[in-house]
Here is the input.
Amino acid sequence: ETGVTQSPTHLIKTRGQQVTLRCSSQSGHNTVSWYQQALGQGPQFIFQYYREEENGRGNFPPRFSGLQFPNYSSELNVNALELDDSALYLCASISVGQGDNEQFFGPGTRLTVL
Amino acid sequence: RKEVEQDPGPFNVPEGATVAFNCTYSNSASQSFFWYRQDCRKEPKLLMSVYSSGNEDGRFTAQLNRASQYISLLIRDSKLSDSATYLCVVTDSWGKLQFGAGTQVVVTP
Here is the structure.
C-alpha cells in the first residue's frame, strides 16, 4: 500500500452534473498530481498542486479544477460532465525537493458518466 | 505525435521465455525515466527507474538511449505473474509524468 487514498472508489453521474474527487497524499509529500486514464490509454496529466498552488496543467479545459489543502490533501472538481469524462482518475503524491522523485499513486476513482 | 509512444502489444510470451519492448519519447529535455506496471483495473506501480548506464533488478533490465530517445525493458525467465501492462514514463524537472499508452504482456503456461 502506498499510503495515498482516494474517495470515492466508484461513482456514477449523468451528463451536465458536477463531481468532486478526493485524495489524501502520503505523509510528508507536499505535491499532488491528478491524472485521467481512459480505457486502453495511459494516464494523462491533468494538473499538479504544490503547497496549495496549481503548478502545471495538462491539456484539460477549465471545467477541470482543483484544490490543495494545508495538509496537502487535494480535490479534483469537474463541472458540466461529458460522456468522455468517464475514466479512472488517479492522484499521485510526491515529495518534491527532498530528493525523492518517485510518485505514489492512489487506487483511483472510477467515474462513469451516463 | 504523442510525447511517449509504445507498441500496445499484446506480447504473448511462453512462461520462462524472454520478452523485450521499447518506447520512444519526443522531448529531448526529459529528465527522468521509469517503467511502471499496471495490473487490470489497478493503479500504476513503479517497476524501476531507467538510467543511461542501464540497470537491472532481478529478471528485469532497463536501458535508456538518450541519443535516440528510446527506453527499453527486458524481462527474462517470464513468470505468469508478469502478465500486466507496462507503462513507459518520462518526467520533467517538476515531476510531471508523461505516460505512454502501455504495452500489454501476457505470459502463458
Observations:
- Chain A has a mean pLDDT of 91.
- Chain A touches chain B at residues 2, 31, 33, 35, 40-45, 48, 50, 55-56, 88, 90, 92, 94, 96, 101-103, 105-108, 110 (CB under 8 Å).
